[in-house]
Amino acid sequence: MKQPLKNLGVSNTIRAAVANWSKTLAGEVAKYGITVNNVLPGATLTVRLQSIIETKASKTGMSKEDVEKEMLQEIPMQRFANPSEIANAVGFLASPAAAYITGINVPVDGGRTSSL
CA-based angle 5:25:83, to the nearest 5? Predict the structure, then answer.
């Protein structure tokens, strides 16, 4: 976890635990040539994202388009990720090209995460 997300206390707690667990595990299994990394996906064009947008629209009275615009304002790239973009990051980390990368959290979020 790079930074907590607003109004997501349970999710933020779980993300921090997973990040710390994976960092610990990465150190324990590195000597065997095993890498452990986390991919931190941003808002991705999925059925789940559409459900989140629809729920927020119905709860706030906003249009779905306005909810989307509000969400996109938080993303420097001004668009949602395609699932293949998340998969490409996972594929890279699982490939021989990433054999010396372990114990990291990689945001794939269009620049939304503001911390290093």
Answer: 45
Cα separation, 83 vs 102, whole angstroms: 23
Helix (H, G, I), strand (E, B) or coil at 5: coil
**pLDDT digits 0-9 by tens, 58-80:** 999 999 999 999 999 999 999 99
Q: Which long-range contacts (CB under 8 A, 24 or more apart) does 77-80 make?
A: 77/110, 77/111, 78/110, 79/110, 80/42, 80/43, 80/44, 80/45, 80/49, 80/110
Q: What is the pLDDT of residues 31-60, one digit of tens each?
A: 999 999 999 999 999 999 999 999 999 999
For residue 110, the enclosing domain spans 1-41+99-116
Q: Determine, yes or no, domain membership for 85.
A: no
